[in-house]
Amino acid sequence: MKTITLKIILFxxxxxxxxxxxxxxxxxxxYQSMExxxxxxxxxxxxxxRAWGKGRYLGDAxxxxxxxxxxxxxxKGILRGQGGCEARPIVAEANARExxxxxxxxxxxxxxxxxxxxxxxDRRPGSWTHARMKGGITCSMVVRVDYPGLRARxxxxxxxx
Length: 161
Known about the structure:
Layout: H1 2-19, E1 37-41, E2 47-55, H2 58-76, H3 96-99, H4 101-107, E3 118-119, E4 128-133, E5 136-145, H5 147-156
Antiparallel strand pairs: 1-2, 2-5, 3-5, 4-5
């Protein structure tokens, strides 16, 4: 009798445990890639992208998202997103970030020159979202990056040839 009761209790606990694994509950956030994604390519050569940033405060997270958008356009390229929107990295030289470290440290400083090449022209509902996470805030923003302007600036400053 004891073994049958023990088996029933174990089965009930197992069933309750499996039922609690259902991820349709409220509050469960699905996994999202935090990779910069191209949303649109404009006629002037600029690209509208969704970029992510993390920070202690919302303002820091937004600033970091803008930096990440410009950084990805410069060194990584935007390879995911809408069809026909793929953009190669502007700086194709290997180890350019390290070679011109002083230049790019100043360029990406808080309030630095990178802000001239990122804009919030695409203000619409859902153009930015944020979530409080352990250790800070994660923010997603839709921004427009001026590819031709960045390319011209880097040529003018001697980073591109």
